[in-house]
Write a structure and sequence with these properties.
Elements lengths: L2 E5 L5 E5 L3 E2 L12 H13 L4 E3 L8 H9 L9 E3 L22 H14 L23
Length: 142
């Protein structure tokens, strides 16, 4: 699969697939999906060379993030890139929270990113193998 390269502001070289996998349907957007199907879809996408995954806490109130995490649980964090959204921190087992008026502040943006990382914990070079730990410049796992 064709790949693209990008150098981040902190100098990290990112290589990612030209095609990504969007996970909105995995949050039961169009129909109810079973866990095995969604996890197998993510695993097959990775095996096919997909390295960028678009998700959001809004997709199924966090369900898509949880399913994406399950499908990539054996993949090292430095092998993949997540594209996500900020604005709310969701819980797939709870009610959607009220609109956050502080959604785009630096503090909430960081909290939102940490939440996505917690939903997708995998070993990370920058975190020295400790899952769910966020460090400066470590959202991708560099």
């Amino acid at each position: 699969m064709k790949t693209n390269r990008f150098t981040s502001r902190n100098g990290t070289d990112l290589e990612f697939s030209a095609i990504g996998l969007g996970t909105a349907p995995m949050g039961d957007l169009y129909e109810l999906l079973d866990e095995k199907t969604t996890i197998a879809t993510v695993e097959q996408a990775y095996k096919s060379g997909v390295r960028i995954f678009d998700t959001s806490p809004h997709y199924g109130n966090g369900l898509a993030e949880a399913r994406l995490s399950a499908g990539l649980r054996r993949v090292a964090r430095n092998e993949i890139i997540f594209s996500t959204k900020i604005g709310r921190v969701m819980d797939p087992f709870g009610k959607p929270p009220a609109r956050n008026t502080d959604a785009y502040s630096p503090g909430f943006a960081g909290r939102s990113a940490r939440h996505t990382k917690r939903e997708n914990p995998r070993p990370c070079r920058g975190c020295r193998g400790r899952a769910s730990r966020i460090e400066e410049g470590c959202l991708r796992g560099g």
